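In this section we walk through a basic example: taking a raw amino acid sequence and producing a predicted 3D structure, encoded as discrete structure tokens. The instruction is simple. Fold the sequence below.
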Amino acid sequence: MARCAVCGKEVLMPFRCAYCGEYFCAEHRLPEKHNCPGLAAAASPHEKEFKLRRMVERRSFEVEARPSGPRPMGLEARREAAHLLVGALLVILVGFSLIGYNFSLSPLYLAAYVAGFAGSFLLHELGHRAYARSKGLYARFKLDPFGALLTLVTAIPFIPFKIIAPGAVVVAGLASLEIFGAIALAGPLTNLALSAILNVAGFILPRFYLIFFTLAQLNAFIALFNLIPFGELDGRKVLAWSPARWIVAIILSAILLLTSNLSYRWI
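The resulting token sequence is shown next.
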């Protein structure tokens, strides 16, 4: 059984949209019926321009006509929030595997680790999402079953290599290679900035070096792993857009990972 992405009705044999990949009931199976973000991909150039213009006009009208105040969260937003929560929990498990699941630490340390592990993942994905939406593109986070399973398996402490890829931000719309490359780079850049800040904090506040350098390592690793130019990872898109930017980003990731690791051992 699956739920229709529009009305939420459970369907025994759902229809899968070829453009956006979601599942729908018979009533909402056509792209026109579920306002498919990938519908423009099948249109001619003139139709694309017309549809994009109408979409912008319709969204502008909806924004003006929408009443102010809090609104109930839609089905798609609730689903994305659930996917982000599961992804964050998986990353928290991987994070705790880095410290050997040492739950004997003080509550303050444990809370800091949980917030840091979850924040590292969420800021990465929301960085992708925010930049894509700033360019007028459809973007939302979606769990990947295989990636989530790999992330869970590598959360076992004695497995030395960690995979942090529980899902990805799905982006749809018409944009240049430069924009898609910049969207891909936005996530790793967020982690690089966090790693650099945490490394500095570890030296300024040596009392909490254990937290700062552990989280600095995690963020540097997330950036480095995602910059691998393979499959659906960010690195393939960044390399296709700008090899120079990709080289700089991956070198910075390696330097920050090495720095945080050595600092953790020396202090």
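Looking at the output, two observations stand out. Residues 2 and 11 are 5 Å apart (CA to CA). The chain has a mean pLDDT of 82. In the next section we compare this with other chains.
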